[in-house]
Amino acid sequence: MTGLAIAANGLRKSYGDKNVLKGVDLAVPTGTVFALLGPNGAGKTTAVKILSTLVTPDAGEISVGGHDLATEAQQVRAAIGATGQFSAVDGLITGRENMLLMADLHRLPKAEGRRVATELLARFDLTDAADKPASTYSGGMKRRLDIAMTLVGGPRIIFLDEPTTGLDPRSRHGMWQIIRELVAGGTTVLLTTQYLEEADQLADRIAVLHDGVIAAEGTAEELKRLVPGGHVRLRFTDPAAHRAAADALAEAARDDEALALRVPSDGSQRALRSVLDRLDAAGVAADELTVHTPDLDDVFFALTGAPALPAQTAAPTASATQAASAKENAR
Hints:
By secondary structure, this protein is α/β, with parallel strands linked by helices. It has two domains: about 5-90 and about 135-225, Rossmann fold (3-Layer(aba) Sandwich), CATH 3.40.50.300; about 230-290, 2-Layer Sandwich (Alpha-Beta Plaits). It is about 40% helix and about 25% strand. It is built from twelve helices and 14 strands. It has helices at about 45-50, 75-80, 95-105, 110-125, 140-150, 170-185, 195-200, 220-225, 240-250, 270-280, 295-305, 320-330; strands at about 5-15, 20-30, 35, 60-65, 65-70, 80-85, 155-160, 190, 205-210, 215-220, 230-235, 255, 260-265, 290. A six-stranded mixed β-sheet has the order 6-7-8-3-9-10, with helices on both faces. β4 and β5 form a beta hairpin. It is elongated and about 80 Å long.
């Protein structure tokens, strides 16, 4: 468990005859973002509740912040912060009063509580709204306040259970930046999310939870390589070059109308170099080369058999549109 902020082995939990977690193993290195993906009902929130001492597991060995969860629950609680799917902000009081209430719960001296509240409100760009009722805040402001409240006790480990659900694209990207800054400061974040792009953007490692077990774990790139369908697309302007390349790359699928070839590939540097070396040996150069790899939508579908998780609501950027077009053309 050296170097791990969170370690769980054989985590199990049932409610009646429903087995929610069936032996989950997790290893979250210190100072990283670990994303837990899965369809609704996969057990993500149950896992977070167990790790944050809110629910007792039926079985499993768990260490959080170097403390055994079964025998040192109080020390675990002192080391962690948690933000659930729904905001814990009290809309009837001001943002500052919410912060001071959290400081009181952490038993901070009054002066220190005021200092911490002021610093965190400034850090999360809430100073101007600090003395307004939280009910007047936008969704993004409430989420920022929620995380600011989580940080009052100075936790080394933070559980974020679907922290950007319901936020508009601008607020979501702002939340991503906050998470990156937390991790840059040494905080460990365990994140559950329904947004595949969120996991791809933020997580150092991703685990896909399905039917109570971890279906796969790795970096985003490692997970993408688990799914077939990756390829290199070569396009030519000279029909003779296209024919010569097709002869050199016998496994390639030909598109004679577009003068293009599609070569199966895992997207790795070694695979790409092999394709280029074979073209060089044939004395042919492609006019255009693009590498296509499966995305996390493909991974999620392949591992869970379920439709992809909800798409981001942002309008597609030019690059996203181009990628979608390229993906469609590749099919």
